[in-house]
Amino acid sequence: MHTTAPVLELNNAVRACAAGDRSALRSIYDLESARMLGVALRLLRRRALAEEVLQDAFLQIWERASTFDPQRGHARTWVYAIVRNRALNILRNEARTDLTQNIEDLCGADPDEDPEQVVMRLSEASALRRCLSGLEPARRRIVILAYIHGLSHGELAGRVGCPLGTLKSWLRRSLQSLRRCLA
User: Fold this and answer.
1) Is this prediction's pTM over 0.85?
2) Residue 125 to residues 65, 79, 111, 137, 159: CA-CA distances in angstroms?
3) Which of 30, 49, 110, 138 is the residue whose CA sits 20 to 30 A from 90?
4) Which CATH number is associated with domain 108-182?
């Protein structure tokens, strides 16, 4: 296998980090930080978050350098996996926060409020609003009544006038559709 000088230099710098050599971390920064920032920017599309990812990545490189195994791959692959994973974690956490915030906004709904009015209170940019709007009105209504107003399956079946088994199937399929849409 042919190994280039920058690859060897990076491998050696990661090993030196594992031994506690702070100047080795600076070497890794000098060699890779611009490209690492570019990867984070492509994933996150926001410079502030990308810079945060870069800082976190270098902290992880310093703390976890001893886990790098050159037998399993190049240091460059290891370093970029750290950046990519950190950026993806931020994206996942943002999606969860957005959904949690939207659900919290809905939870204060008046039990007598129409489910369509509840959905309309969500931000137009909200993924939850978009996904709920993609459901048939009857299905959207049972999801809102069940999860926002807290009605049981039996109460829902009585309110919408359908058999309990049918209602459970509708609710299950509606939730599966929402999960796919939000994924």
Assistant:
1) no
2) 41, 34, 25, 20, 31
3) 30
4) 1.10.10.10
